[in-house]
Write a structure and sequence with these properties.
The complex is a heterodimer of chains A (685) and B (110).
Chain A lengths: L2 H11 L4 H8 L6 H9 L27 E3 L2 E3 L22 H15 L2 H11 L6 H11 L3 H10 L5 H21 L3 H12 L6 H9 L6 H8 L8 H10 L12 H15 L29 E6 L6 E6 L5 E6 L4 E6 L10 E7 L8 E4 L5 E6 L2 E6 L5 E5 L6 E6 L6 E5 L3 E5 L5 E7 L3 E7 L5 E10 L38 E10 L5 E7 L3 E6 L5 E6 L3 E6 L4 E6 L11 E4 L5 E4 L6 E5 L5 E5 L7 E6 L6 E6 L4 E5 L3 H10 L30
Antiparallel strand pairs in A: 1-2, 3-30, 4-5, 5-6, 6-7, 8-9, 9-10, 10-11, 12-13, 13-14, 14-15, 16-17, 17-18, 18-19, 20-21, 21-22, 22-23, 24-25, 25-26, 26-27, 28-29, 29-30
Chain B lengths: L13 E4 L5 E4 L3 E8 L2 E6 L5 E11 L2 E10 L5 E9 L11 E4 L3 E4 L1
Antiparallel strand pairs in B: 1-2, 1-9, 3-4, 4-8, 5-6, 6-7, 7-8
The chains are: A alpha+beta (685), B mainly beta (110).
């Protein structure tokens, strides 16, 4: 807000005393009629009013010619003829109210700084952006005339009892804080006692406010109150909070036009199935509807990494997006280095490290926040590897069954692990156990921590003891509702299960990270194999058999979307978010394809083939390049998928046909090393 | 093949592999304790989990000729017993499709 700085110059021109007299006489202007009738009487009775500097964004008018006006309609200049139009619509065949439209345009023009144009438009249209009352109110708030501001509320149409109370409270609160800031404790106390306390607000809030009296310095006060002081933006913020209680037709919300344009942008974005471009880019022009070309989608294999000697079960990008870790049945993990893009979609992939020394196949892999540590799990062991040297720093053997999840904590305080032994453990960055959650009700098959550190989502299975006498297959056996179901129950039919197989119940459980309390629990049909919390901490993406990926809304505690098409029976299949804003959902599948959906609509966008026999076990989107992801498969390979437009392919083919095989080298240090004998990376184009 | 987690059992008594404690069977699926294996006493189970079945072969046992397959622990690969594919003697038909686990190779687990 530039209001304050402009105040001085504008008050010398047109503000000042007369505004008060006007305020007393005029009535609140709400409807269009009053404007219309006034607008015609073009420029008689020159008066000053508060309006001219009461701009929404505070850009004071720079011209020194005081406009002529009557009743709040300002006529700044050179007899602009009022254009009289029939009706009230912007166009005869539209539903847009002309006055509303014009007032928003005037507001926008003023905010930008086109003061003259705004005035001209007001004159020509006969509509004013807002009444003198509003401008005065603005000044009262900005100049801390609290009594007058309070009195003005009713004139601005704040008649509803609740709104009025709320508004008065906001004003008193500001007054109280400013008094405290000026070390006027006695007066502040009076405000607290006589104005704030009687409002019956939340006692806790009132307590917080009263405790601020103890602040020793204004800085301390501002810090503790989360308030930036009378010289900061607090009055502006107060104004916009008060705005919410004032009829918007009287006082137009700030930058209203921009809000509408933003909504339009969001709407277009939501309807763009292949959306994958940043909001500030050239892709959003007001001239045309936004649309992302599907050819920009990463649906082409640009590289195949084939060093693993057996099935690849899991992949994970480093946070920098420069390394990819893979692991699997061959009891090793490999860290690949992704080279810079030389030609479009042509990069060099080098095998940075091979981490062996696992007794069993490697199931999960995870990076520390700074990418200096890679975690691998093999059965009940967790290994911590230095990603520079490739040395194993520590082997943790606390878990007693298969470790299924390792997640670095977003606050960098360590990591969390979980396993089929039902243990959920918290570790410090060195790998010393810091906390244990006791026995979870489920054997955890995967777990994730929300980036905002509020929730933990675990998926897994509860095994219920078999029924002693097999014939009772009513499907109504041991209490599945005992654990506080929040979601629907689909009674599992037992009739086809042999009696010796234990009944298993699959579940997702959401915990509050701070209290370890269960917030939500959802029963799922088949084995759960992966869970991912979205970057905005809003959703949890869960893969489970049979053949379903599910999006759980953590804030509303309900299913947001389901994704189908992929195959998942008995294998651990993992899914992930992808693209700008996590707009896509991708999953592996037992049919050997990669599936990609539009996250919000659930529409299946791509079924990408290429991998050989067996399952595609995991997919991982590059965290720093929205146009690149990787998949891994039983066929022992990892595929890198990128967007390749036809033009790029031609360019690639024309440039270096002989160089189609990217060079693989054992050492990461030699970037431009000779064409290596190990050259197994392929560019298939 | 893809990655799979081992199955877990629940119940009053769970038998696991004595080498690696992988869950194998529960007492609820036990049919008989009156069997003998290569290492002494053996149990007949209606079903077991987490085992790999070997190739079928004919074997002469005290109760007659049978087609059986050896079974191995899915995690550590230890031979645990066998599965009856076929019993030639009509009185032994009840064993078909059932599993033998040798008691000395089992351990109680939770």
């Amino acid at each position: 807000m530039r209001l304050q700085s402009d105040q001085a110059s504008s008050s010398s021109t047109s503000l000042a005393a007369p505004s008060n007299s006007l305020a007393g006489s005029s009535t609140p202007i709400q409807g269009s009629n009053s404007f219309n009738s006034n607008g015609h009487s073009n420029g008689t009775g020159p008066t000053t009013n508060g309006f001219s500097n009461g701009l929404t964004n505070g850009t004071g008018p720079s011209n020194s010619t005081p406009g002529s006006l009557k009743n709040g309609v300002i006529k700044h200049n050179k007899n602009v003829a009022h254009v009289s139009l029939p009706g009230r619509k912007l166009f005869s065949d539209s539903n847009v109210d002309r006055e509303e439209f014009v007032r928003l345009v005037v507001q926008s023009l003023r905010d930008v700084g086109y003061i003259e144009s705004a005035a001209t438009l007001e004159a020509e249209s006969g509509y004013t952006m807002e009444s003198t009352e509003v401008a005065e109110f603005r000044n009262y708030v900005m100049e801390a005339s609290w009594e007058q501001a309070e009195a003005a509320l009713i004139r601005l149409g704040v008649t509803d009892e609740d709104n009025l109370m709320e508004s008065r409270f906001l004003i008193s609160q500001q007054k109280y804080l400013e008094l405290l800031e000026n070390r006027n404790t006695t007066a502040a106390l009076m405000v607290l006692r006589n104005e704030l306390a009687p409002h019956h607000v939340d006692p806790e809030h009132l307590y917080t406010l009263s405790s601020l009296i103890m602040c020793s310095t204004p800085e301390d006060l501002r810090h503790r109150a989360g308030w930036d002081g009378s010289r900061g933006n607090s009055r502006t913020r107060l104004l916009s909070n008060l705005q919410k209680h004032i009829p918007s037709a009287v006082m137009i919300p700030q930058r209203r036009f921009l809000t509408l344009l933003e909504q339009s942008r969001l709407w277009q974005q939501q309807r763009c199935p292949y959306h994958n471009s940043p909001p500030d880019s050239m892709s959003f022009s007001l001239y045309r509807d936004h649309h992302c070309d599907s050819s920009c989608f990463p649906n082409t294999t640009t590289t195949i990494l084939e060093i693993h000697t057996d099935e690849v079960w899991n992949i994970e990008w480093s946070h920098s997006g420069e390394y990819l870790a893979s692991a699997g049945k061959d009891k090793s993990a490999i860290i690949w280095r992704v080279g810079p893009e030389k030609e479009p979609a042509q990069r060099e992939y080098t095998q940075h490290l091979v981490l062996r020394d696992h007794q069993y196949p490697v199931g999960c892999i995870s990076w520390s926040l700074d990418d200096s540590i890679l975690f691998t799990s093999s059965e009940n062991h967790i290994k911590m590897w230095n990603t520079r040297s490739g040395l194993c720093m520590r082997t943790i053997e606390t878990h007693t069954e298969t470790v299924t999840a390792i997640r670095w904590l977003p606050d960098n305080s360590g990591f969390m692990s979980a396993g089929l032994d039902r243990r959920i453990l918290i570790w410090d960055p060195e790998g010393n156990q810091r906390d244990s959650w006791g026995m979870a009700p489920i054997r955890v098959t995967d777990l994730d921590v929300s980036p905002n550190m509020t929730k933990v989502v675990a998926v897994g299975v509860i095994h219920l003891p078999p029924i002693p006498h097999p014939p009772t297959s009513t499907g109504n056996s041991p209490a599945p509702g005992a654990r506080g179901d929040s979601a629907s129950q689909s009674p599992q039919s037992q009739s086809h299960t042999p009696s010796y197989i234990v009944k298993a119940e699959n579940r997702m459980i959401v915990y509050d990270l701070a209290t370890k309390h269960q917030i939500a629990s959802l029963r799922l049909d088949g084995e759960t194999t992966s869970v991912r919390v979205s970057r905005d901490s809003r959703y949890a993406l869960i893969s489970h058999a049979p053949d379903e990926v599910l999006l759980w809304d953590l804030s509303l505690s309900r299913i947001a979307c389901k994704y189908t098409g992929q195959k998942q029976g008995r294998h651990v299949i993992r899914s992930c978010y992808g693209g700008v804003d996590g707009n896509f959902v991708a999953s592996g599948s037992e049919d050997g394809n990669v599936y990609v959906w539009h996250r919000d609509s659930g529409a299946l966008l791509e079924v990408l083939s290429g991998h050989g026999e067996g399952s595609v076990n995991a997919v991982a989107w590059n965290p720093t390049n929205e146009w690149m992801f990787a998949s891994c498969s039983d066929d022992k390979t990892i595929r890198i998928w990128e967007a390749v437009t036809p033009g790029m392919l031609e360019a690639a083919a024309a440039s270096t046909p002989a160089d189609k095989d990217t060079v693989m080298s054992d050492s990461a240090s030699v970037a431009g090393s000779s064409k290596n004998e190990k050259g197994k990376g392929k560019v298939t184009s | 093949m893809g990655m799979s987690y081992r199955q877990y059992l629940a119940g009053a008594r769970i038998y696991g592999c004595s080498t690696c404690k992988t869950h194998l069977a529960t007492i609820h699926s036990m049919l008989s304790r009156a069997f003998n294996g290569q290492h002494g006493r053996a149990y007949l189970f209606e079903g077991v989990v987490n085992v790999v079945e070997g190739k079928p072969c004919d074997r002469q046992m005290t109760t007659g000729n049978h087609t059986v397959r050896d079974i191995y622990c899915i995690k550590c690969g230890v031979t645990l017993g066998w599965k009856y594919d076929k019993a030639y003697d009509p009185s032994q038909k009840y064993k078909e499709g059932k599993y033998i686990l040798e008691r000395n190779l089992l351990v109680d687990v939770q």
